[in-house]
Amino acid sequence: MYHIVSIWHKNRKQIVNFALMRNNSTMKRIAPSELILNSDGSIFHLHLTPEQLANNIILVGDPGRVESVSKFFDTIEFEKSSREFHSSTGVYKGKRITALSTGIGADNIDIVMNELDALVNIDFESRRVKSELTELNILRIGTSGSIQPQIELGSFVLSHISAGFDALLNWYGNRDEVSNSHMERAFIEHMGWNEILPKPYFVEAAPSLIEKLEDFTIKGLTVSAAGFYAPQGRVLRLPLVMEEMLERLESFRYDNYKITNFEMEGAAIAGLAKLMGHRAATICLIIANRYAKESVTDYQPYIDSLILNCLERL
Are residues 280 and 169 in contact, defined by beta-carbon separation less than 8 angstroms? Predict the structure, then answer.
């Protein structure tokens, strides 16, 4: 059965819940079919071993963007590449950091977050959860489209709250413990949410990361969509289930929050991080404004500026 262990963290006044699998008082051994390791002892998809992972992690979607982060490192320990998962661990101004690409979408986030957690919180030799658990700082840096007219191209939006339309968190126990149920209900009512769509969830970013990043960012309530086209209100040849989705999203208001932008991974990261006891946040560069129907494609200088701002604050 699952037991919830609450840990009081110094200087944060924050309770983090860890779901630990126990068999009586003995930790259950995790079967090889559930925790798959490669022949070199690395975790299955990421091909990382525990000592290769830093506790400060920057996630990016595009494997090519890992180099955009690591080029600022003072030293690089190693680089790994497996499928869409490219990683580089190095040191920036005395702090060890891992840059890791996730690919696109919440299904990949399910892999990345579980394997990151396993690298620090499961003993690969005994295949048991460690008695002392490690918290990771996980920051996603991405690109995004705004749905509010006043958010200009080139802006940096920090997702204080992420709204998941992807359904990933709904597969996990204790999902309701990390989702803002009041905002969830207000949103469903406002949208006239179609019952065939996955139930959305609303998860807050880690307060400690918000505090580090809020001085140069716009406060965001960000939608993590399940896809790029219809799930974000784009129409090519196929019609939408909710034809007025963008207009309804733009007009939603709750506790001084309004929906600011779209992306595809942040809510899954925030939700799984909270369930696992890690700190996570998402910050995105706005490269399109859906309201004004404008976009920018030559945005590398903005990305470099965003990355440097984040590295300085981590």
Answer: no
Cα-Cα-Cα-Cα dihedral sign, residues 151, 189, 270, 279:
positive
Tokens of 85: 């998962």
User: Quick count: other Cβ atoms within 10 Å of Cβ 159?
Assistant: 32
Q: DSSP assignment, residue 113?
A: H
Residues in the chain: 314
Terminal-residue alpha carbon distance, the chain: 37
- Does the global pTM surpass 0.70? yes
Residue 37 DSSP symbol: B
Measured CA to CA, the distance from residue 63 to residue 83 in angstroms comes to 9
Half-sphere exposure of 229 (CA within 13 A, CB side): 6
The one-letter code for the residue type at 17 is N
Strands 15-23 and 253-254: unpaired
- For the chain (314 residues), the mean pLDDT of every run of 10, in chain order, is 39 41 58 97 98 98 97 97 97 98 97 98 97 97 94 96 97 96 97 95 98 97 96 94 93 96 97 98 94 84 97 94
The continuous run of DSSP H or E covering 267 comes out as helix 266-276
Structural domains in the chain, CATH included, are 2-228+241-307 (3.40.50.1580)
- Please, where are the H alpha helices in the chain? 66-70, 106-121, 175-178, 181-191, 207-213, 245-251, 266-276, 300-313
Beta-ladder partners of 98:
57, 89
Contact (Cβ atoms closer than 8 angstroms) between residue 85 and residue 103: yes
The CA-atom distances, in angstroms, between 4 and each of 26, 175, 275 are 15, 13, 10
